[in-house]
Design a protein that fits this description.
Blueprint lengths: L3 H5 L6 H5 L1 H19 L11 H12 L5 H8 L3 H13 L3 E5 L5 E5 L1 H22 L3 H23 L2
Antiparallel strand pairs: 1-2
Helix pairs in contact: 4-5, 4-6, 5-6, 5-8
């Protein structure tokens, strides 16, 4: 008897991975993210960022006004590494830091950061249009699911 599920399995997927859809989802998200970054055209007018800087910028974009400690908690990046990334992001013109009451610091994205993200998103959209542009309803459902997952993971991190 033919295994019809085997026909639907991605190349290289094991029975164990298909039996654990959450693990398969995590694996696919990591790999797709790597592939999208690798396929981002180099001629796109963007400020290059390291992986840590990208991670920090995601939180700064989603939660403007966050403190460095809040950024570290949400990203699971050591506070010292967040501080180093913030220094380089500030030098690149991507973030500003301002004093809050007491000894606190609030980190916010700059206009350059907004422009940078807009340019990246346009390049990513062009890149993915060929692969998925004919199935935008599924893309929207996937975006909703991944957005909900990201929010829940951020919330779980911020409020253990």
């Amino acid at each position: 008897m033919q295994d019809h599920d085997a026909d639907a399995r991605p190349h290289g997927a094991t029975t164990a991975s298909v039996d654990d859809p959450l693990a398969e989802l995590a694996d696919l998200m990591l790999n797709v993210g790597r592939l999208v970054r690798a396929r981002t055209p180099s001629e796109v007018d963007v400020v290059p960022l390291t992986e840590t800087e990208r991670t920090v910028m995601r939180v700064v974009d989603l939660f403007p006004g966050s403190s460095p400690s809040e950024i570290a908690a949400r990203t699971h990046v050591q506070r010292t590494n967040v501080s180093a990334a913030l220094r380089t992001l500030e030098a690149k013109g991507m973030v500003t830091r301002s004093s809050t009451s007491g000894r606190g610091v609030a980190v916010s994205p700059t206009q350059l950061a907004a422009d940078n993200l807009r340019n990246l998103r346009a390049a990513w959209s062009r890149e993915l249009a060929g692969a998925l542009g004919d199935d935008l309803p599924s893309v929207r459902r996937c975006v909703e699911l991944l957005g909900r997952l990201e929010r829940r993971l951020f919330d779980a991190t911020a409020h253990p």
